[in-house]
Amino acid sequence: MLTRAARTGAPDPWAALPSELAPILRPEMSSLATQILTEIQLRIPEYARPMDQKYVHAIRRGVEEALGQFVDQIADPTAPQERCAEVHRALGKAEMHEGRSLDSLQAAYRLGARLAWRRTARIGERARIAPRTMLLLGEAIYAHIDELAARSVEGFAEAQARAAGTRARRRRRLLELLLTDPQPPRRILAEAAEAAHWTLPRTLVVAALERVDGQEQRSNPLSRREALLDLESGHPHLLVPCPDDDADDEPPWEQQLAGWRVALGPRVELHRAPHALRWARKLLELSHAGLVPERPVLRCEDHLSHLLLLSDENLTRQVVHTRLAPLGGLKPKQQVRLADTLLAWLQTRGGAPEVAHRLRVHPQTVRYRLHQLEDLFGDALTDPQARFELEIALRAAGRLLSYGALVPEPAGTGRSST
After folding, report:
1. Which residues form the PucR C-terminal helix-turn-helix domain (predicted)?
2. Residue 64, Cβ neighbours under 10 Å: how many?
3. Are 399 and 306 a contacting pair, CB within 8 Å?
4. Cβ within 8 Å of residue 186, ≥6 positions away
5. pLDDT tens for residues 285-332?
6. What mean pLDDT do residues 118-125 have?
7. Which residues pair with 297 in a beta bridge?
8. Contact at 8 Å (CB) between 281 and 208?
9. 246 vs 187: which has the higher pLDDT
10. pLDDT at 35 over 80
11. What is the rounded (10 degree) CA torsion for 45, 49, 51, 56?
12. Mean pLDDT over each residue of the chain, to the nearest integer
């Protein structure tokens, strides 16, 4: 395996050191390791507290491997380094799992380097090692420590990435469970939430998303609110827990989700999350069809009647065809005029003047149209259930397509049954 100097192209202190130094230094390494470990625990606050014995052993092994590898490289600059490097990667990983930064471990490396140099200097004085050789020895000590510190940084970064990846995968799985219809039992949700380090809320908001520009969104723009996101699937969506203490604390959707069109479901309890997502996705569909405005942020609560009437388009069309069949024998313009008049009459529950005022036509025109409607619809105009379904059909017809396109043609001109 190449030495560090050969890999980086830097001058190689190891090659210039006489291999005869190794047997002079090796006998001192065991006591030096004990001294370094003791000083680390005395001088670095994070390591001064009582520590887990397994972790103490890991640090001791790291010190011993560092010193052993140092002497081995003096004896043979091409000596394998991977075992020592892996030990120090593991120390970096352990720091991350302990919840610490690398500051304490880096301080430990610096302290170890100073102590190693002091001990080596005393050994060199006793053995009357040439000053130039001592300078090279000091350079080698600090080069070795730099290498090991770099390995610990690698381990720390690897552990961070793995933890983030594991957490992301668990949260993605939790999001899938929460939005599965029907939801799994509460016990399973609780276990998945605990594994993902996420607290199950009492209420939440679900949103369906649609990208409106080409920018990639890799981070979680609502991470502060513990949002769960899926931005990579064919139908991106998110779930945001609602704080129990502030019902009005709403994210700035347009700012946080710039580059996306957002359809927000209503605030619902946890078990209704799948329904809220279905409504939000339907609202996006309605906006594509031009039935609701295409705004950056759409709210289901602003379009409940649309969602109710158009949630099952085939069924809605059937209601329209069935209830408005008496209009089928008329020309399209006549269908529209009579449908508008009938809807205004059902909504006002008044006479010709009230309907005329709403439609901005002459009352006599309304009376004429009402007579036509009585001939076409007959008893349906006095039956409460039929009147209710007629109003639904008329509202839906106006929102889906033109009346003429919805009413079957020909449909006959006889009176409809109630």
Report:
1. 338-396
2. 19
3. yes
4. none
5. 888 888 888 888 999 988 887 888 777 777 777 778 888 889 888 888
6. 93
7. 262
8. yes
9. 187
10. yes
11. 50
12. 83
Q: Given the structure tokens 């970064």, which residue do they identify?
A: 157
**Size of the chain in residues:** 418
Find the Cα–Cα–Cα–Cα dihedral 54, 55, 56, 61, rounded to 10°.
90
> Could you give the percent of the chain with pLDDT greater than 70?
88
pLDDT band at 217 (very low <50, low <70, confident <90, very high): low
Rounded Cα distance between 264 and 218, Å, is 21
This prediction's pTM: 0.55
Number of Cβ within a 10 Å radius of residue 230? 17
Of the chain, the percentage scoring pLDDT greater than 90 comes to 33
pLDDT at 224: 74
Count CB atoms within 10 A of the CB of residue 288. 12
Q: Which amino acid is at 85?
A: A
